[in-house]
Amino acid sequence: MALDKPIGRIAIVGTGVIGASWSAFYLARGFDVVATDPAPNAEAHLRSYVDEAWPLLTGVGLSDGASRDRLTFTTSLHDAVSAADFVQENGPERPDFKMKLFADIDAATPVDSIIASSSSGITPSVMQTNCVHPERVLVGHPFNPPHVIPLVEVVGGGKTSDEAVRRAMAFYAAVGKKAIRLNKELPGHVANRLQSALYREVLYLIEQGVLSVADADDAVSYGPGLRWGVMGPSLQWHLGGGEGGIKHFMDHLLPGMVQMWKILGTPNVTPELQRTLADGVTREAAGRSVDQLAEAENETLVGLLRLRAQQELRPQHV
Ligand SMILES: NC(=O)c1ccc[n+]([C@@H]2O[C@H](COP(=O)([O-])OP(=O)(O)OC[C@H]3O[C@@H](n4cnc5c(N)ncnc54)[C@H](O)[C@@H]3O)[C@@H](O)[C@H]2O)c1
Questions:
Q1: Do the Cβ atoms of 206 and 216 come closer than 8 Å?
Q2: Is the CB of 8 under 6 A from ligand 1?
Q3: Reduced to 3 DSSP states, what percent helix, strand and coil does the chain have, rounded to the nearest 5?
Q4: Residue 179: strand, helix, or coil
């Protein structure tokens, strides 16, 4: 596989929640996008999603040549991928389904093209099981929605070449994503495991009657979550250690944290807990639709990312 093969044409396989968002993102970055999905109304849904996302993406800044006219839709998987330089797969999250889908994609995609899956939890080794050219199959897991959130987790399977992983990392970085490389594959990759670890404790605290759903949300989003949107947890503890930084944190605060791990909880996800959760979230949403909440969140996130970018552009000396 040539490391320098230019990427100009992206195939999007599956245009549901994630595939539609990826399509909007790649169009905004100036690519030709060919999308496929067998669902009835998939094309209309995709085009309306892209239209709704376009003002936000325009505000962020479109790349040269970016145009919604460069979106093509086909119901033929073969036609979608046969001339693609990079495939971003977003089909249903079932191992047996992905194994078959990847065999079909692999058979139709040029051998020197990358095939990346958005899968949230299935490992690439599983997906490449029945591929004839598994060396270019990997996971490029985005965070929802990919047209706003920069993170992409890149991980190869047992048969993926190092070159393919490096090429995917370089591609994602070049289009403005924050790509991180996982050195080992594991179910749930990394970011979802982190989310899951925190959410287990959130549900435990709600189950135990310590917090309402809204207060648990505030405890994260007005506290540590605000800071995690600026710096990750380890760098945060460097600040938490004061002048002594991370070394002082390790002497002073880490031992208490290690003790705390022994008393963290695991909730029983009973129908009652689920009712409490659903009622609490409905009250928090206060009549706003999922689309309205997502739009408000996306606008806030774009503002935060802009601030972060300005900060990163400043000279690093004091
Ligand atoms: N929803 C999230 O928050 C999220 C975040 C990151 C990654 N992901 C991953 O992205 C993938 C898609 O998830 P989603 O939430 O968009 O699901 P979704 O159900 O919204 O979309 C899946 C789409 O795949 C289509 N599809 C079914 N069979 C197909 C086929 N043979 N070829 C092409 N398309 C086909 C369906 O019609 C549907 O539109 C999953 O692997 C999931 O784990 C989801």
A1: yes
A2: no
A3: 55, 10, 35
A4: strand
Please tell me the pTM assigned to this model: 0.94
Task: Output phi, psi for 314, to 5 deg.
Answer: -70, 150
Verify whether ligand 1 is closer than 6 Å to residue 185 (CB atom).
no
Confidence band, pLDDT 50/70/90 cuts, at residue 264? very high
Q: pLDDT for 129-183, tens place per residue?
A: 999 999 999 999 999 999 999 999 999 999 999 999 999 999 999 999 999 999 9
Distance 90 CA to ligand 1 centre (A): 4
Which residue in the block uniquely carries the two structure tokens 């190092």? 162
Strand arrangement, sheet containing 178-181: 71-74, 32-36, 9-13, 86-89, 114-117, 137-142, 151-156, 178-181
Q: Which residue type occupies 37? A: D
Ligand 1 binding pocket includes 165 (Cβ within 6 Å): no
DSSP run (H or E) holding 99: helix 95-108
pLDDT in tens, 37-89: 999 999 999 999 999 999 999 999 999 999 999 999 999 999 999 999 999 99
